[in-house]
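Collaborator request, handled under Task 6.
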Amino acid sequence: MVICPSCGSENSTGAKFCSECGTRLGSAARAIEERKIVTVVFCDLVGSTARAERLDPEDVRAQLSSYHARVRSELERHGGTVEKFIGDAVVAVFGAPRVHEDDAERAVRAALAIREWAVEEDAVDVRLAVNTGEALVSVDARADAGEGLVAGDVINTAARLQTAAPVNGILVGEKTYRATEQRIDYRSHAPVAAKGKQEPVLAWEAVSARSMFGVDVDLKPMMRLVGRRRELDQLLDALARARAEREPQLVTIVGVPGMGKSRLVSELSVALAAEPDLIRWRQGRSLPYGEGVTYWALGEMVKAEAGILESDPAPVAEAKLRDAVVRTCSDQDVEWLRAMLQPLVGIGDDGLAGDRRGEAFAAWRRFLEGLAAEGPTVLVFEDLHWADDGLLDFVDTLVDWATAVPLLVVATARPELLARRPHWGGGKTNAATLSLAPLSESETAELVHAILERSVLPANVQSAVLARSGGNPLYAEEFARMVAERGDPDSVDELEVPDSLQGLIAARLDSLTRTEKDVLQDASVLGKVFWPGALTTDGRGGSELEEALRTLERKEFVRRERRSAVEDEPQYAFRHVLVRDVAYAQIPRGIRAERHEQVADWIGTRVRGEDAAELLAYHYANALEYSRVAGRDATALHARARLALRDAGRRAVALSAFVNADRFFKEALELTAEDDPDWPGLVLEHAEAAIYVDISNDRLLVRARPLFAGDVHDAARAEMVLGEYRWLRGDQNGAGEHFRAAEPFAEAMTDEGAKLQVLANLGRFAMLADESERAVALAREALALAEKRGRDDLRAHALNSIGVARVQSGDQEGLGDLEASREITRGIGGPEYIRACGNLASVLTSLGQLRRSAELHQEALEIAREIGYDEPTRWLSTEIAWDHLLVGDWTQAHRIVDDLILGFEAAPYWIEPQTRVCRARMLVAEGAVGDAVTDADRAVEFSRGSGFQSVCGPLAFRARLHAELGEHDDARRVLEELLSAWTETRSGYIDNWPIDAWFAARSTQKEAQLQWAIETVGIVVPWVDAATALVRHDFVAAAATLEGMGAIAMAAEVRMWAGEWLEEHGRPSDASVQLERSLTFWHSVSAPAYSRRCESLLAAAS
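Structure tokens returned to the collaborator:
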């Protein structure tokens, strides 16, 4: 007979399991033990002994059962196993029997959830401890049957830490702290002198999770969800699809105010918080400030991930951001991502000037992909109808570019978003829009009854509520709260039911005391989220304010949030933005002016400067406007508003949000007289930003130009900007005048950082203008400064300009500079490396090294796609199409250029001429001459005036096409334009265009002029060697040169022309050899026109 060690029952000899409880018996019950790293949570009630003395034993048991049940549910929800209850203490283990890679984090989050519950419960206080260490684990133990799961000092240490924890506090041991410090915020704590320990135990106090959320998430809905279960299921299904397919999903929730968008998001967060797996949730809101604060919602998400507070000084914020980037992304991209993310969190940027929106989008996507790669991630963009256009563009493309990650993007918006962006989310298989319909009458009644906790309303009242609510849940909720606030539900039939939702909210506001209403109105000036520190005005004391906020929270006008974005300040939010809107609308304009000014002053002292720029601009501008309307003296506000608008423009520039920057600077200029000393500087900053909005925006700067004479720094900037405006308008000569005028100012600059930027840009423009000697000199001066200041990005740019200029002037040693630039950018990563690869590839193409050039094009494109950097993909794709064309893969070449040109019809791009020439070359060979002419004409029209590098290829091909069509006068005219520009610029930018130029020259008896141009420019590269051989009519040598480079298609054209020439000169057998080889190629690429031409010539030769 065998006695069960668990229940004491007798079992027959040889039984393996107890017949009563199923416990293993005999040899089968031998424990399976392993050494494992586990995390232990120890939770104990505070003051339970004293309470037990005063209570009946049954009451004590009831209290403990409720406490045990709640603590167990939180521990198990986070993936832990409750090992034992010891009176009012609970011990749980994470990491046994089931292991998660984030067990320590789960344990701390569970402790935080227990602490949060205890704080909200009356008469419940706890002490908690979390400790990680090695333990002996009984793998097959059954904790629910009372069997011991773990043994070791890790439990004893947790118990000692728990006794030292403050009331409603959580202490953690060193290993737990080290494992979770990137995800949990801690404060320091004195080492614990633990009983039985020779040395004090190091301890930290857990403060909060490094927010799983961003902002404005209510995890405790006040009532059950009514009428929205289907929509919630659709959101959950979208997340399930994102997780199963590792494919991003976009769901946009659209509804009029009060229809339940925020409530639905809140329900989703509650559902996900109950899941055993940790799901990262980041949430940000767009502010209702004018045309939106630039990328504010995205910035809130990044700040939440990094644990950055609005009140953090810039060095602290920068360190937190860097830590977040390091733990999220690969080493190679850290510096690039950090630089691109800095403006989002209000730190500023130190990179190159110019439009870097595409690069910024790529970096931001890369960062969010990194988060989602760690585990399922939900991004919630609230109130997207208030977002700036830049944020809408980013969100709309996020799910297109992000790949292979479980990411759900949720957007909430009013219908105005779809009016503004009719095609929002359109055409995406991974996007859906949920339009929230009004509740039915039965659902509306159910909601009201649930809030009032009564099943019946007087018929006349219920009828009025149903009619006037229009199925709007917020109306029903506000009505029910108004009834509840009367304190006499039985008198509900005496209520006057307001006609509108706004009227209903206003009626509720009128029921508040004067102090409560003043507090709510003051808070409304800040927006949906506010802090008490900004409300202590008009002599209102702190205790009075606290009492008013508690009352407003109890009446469900506002709620206190779990985390605050401002250190040592609690954060509150309006339960619905409509409550804020109605409260704000009731404030007289004169008082609004005072309140906006007071809010701006408070923000200026508590929020990091650059991050507050647009908020300050909004509040000071409103204060100024309302002061004017109210007839108040606004002299002081005038200057503060102007400075705030200027700073907002600068922040927008840092984010490449140039439309917003243009608006802010224009508003600042409207507040600035032309005789004001600040006017020229504002004009300059506006022109620098507005160039990306409208290339005619330099009129004011032209007027202000003489005013910069006394400031070499601003004078240099002004000449550079005016030059860029001229360049973009196709006036290369005018641009050059401004660039040359900038040089003496640059030389006199004492600010080395600013001087470096100007010199680097001067070198780049000189290189693009084929002024190679000047480009090298300027870029070398920039290089020396970049090395001195440790600016690797500008070192790489300078070396790039030097390398290209040297090679284009015939000095192939410039390749070494380009290789050095590429090596530097390999460490920087991202777009800098893409540019270096692309520019090196272009130079290698010019030098005839087509195979390596093609490899670099492909490498750069793959990196661009990997990081989601859209801007260079069209340029690189065109280069790759040319690579395919030259080697004979015309199917791929056609696919690429056809797709690109389709896109150019909607959005022209600088590489379009080269793309069209690529397609036109194939179309001619295929017999579609009319389409080829259209492409060629468009290419010339687009590129003429943009400099020799842009126009040389289109001009050469158009001259050749005229010649092929027998239009010799036109061919001669275009060829002369080409050769004149070449000999004038002496450009070393050479690829296949000299071959086309020869064909036009041969057809128009201009071969001597071509030879003269070649000798005048004096550049020796394989393309020119081939053209020189053609001038000598050494077709075989020319074809061999082209084939040696890898330009197989060009060689086939040369052999076809050779066949014509040889047959004309009485050498039919030699002609046949060349034509046979050419025909083989045309057959392989399915080019019927050139195939027929070769076949016809072969027939004549035979």
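The cover message to the collaborator said: "Residues 57-77 form the longest helix (21 residues). DSSP finds 47 helices and 18 strands in the chain. Please let us know whether this matches your experimental observations."
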